[in-house]
Design goal:
alpha/beta, 2 domains, about 25% strand, globular
Amino acid sequence: MRVNIGFMILVIPYLAVRRVFRVFFGRLKNYEIFLTAGLASTTDYLEKIKIPELVRTWIDVRTKFGFEKEVVKTALTIRGSLFLDVGSDDGYYSVLLSRNFDAITAFEPNPASFRRLNLTIATGKLRNVIALDESVSDHDGTAILFVKTVRGRHSLEFSEPVFAHDLGGTEVRTVTSLPVRTVKLDSLVKQSVDLVKVDVEGAEWRVIHGAEASIETGRILRWIIEVHDKGARKEFENYLQEKNYDTRWLSDRHLFASLKPR
């Protein structure tokens, strides 16, 4: 109830203004305007009006209505023992699926995002969610994480600058790089995993290569992978089909794969 009241009082005016701007300027120009103003997301807006980080993180996570609709719809149908949230950011999917799984492990290597993730877990009293400040990759050790000017765009893959179409032509630059711990899923997965969600901004193959043994032995039952490289989308689909998964696209870049009965 408190979340709904907070949403109505704080967030609806912001969303209403964005909708008006979108009508007048179009989707891409609208995004560029708000990005330039430092108001690209609900969290940015709540920060501008001095809402404490603990509150704004929780409101942002709990009010992403309409976010990746087909992905959310599919994810909510899955229940089980273990969910791995790879590239968790502020924990949206961990919150969304917290009642669907006995245990959730959320991986987030970016320190700023990891802090928000822990705030989300604490605020929601998500006792079945464990947060790890590690990057899931193709080796156990360390790697360099490249953090971009746009929140949530950090990756182990270097790219600069990027004039992304979905950002309205806005230049996305790397602002810092930092060493992070890396871990393979093969080093962690000792039991069946009901779902692995992957959002790692272009480093998807690293995650897959680090899970090859788990894939071969059928320990990972389902994947939802956000494939950022358009040219690699068919390759991902073919790879998983060869490994005995049924696949379908939930959106133009979200691939769902479900292990066939052996």
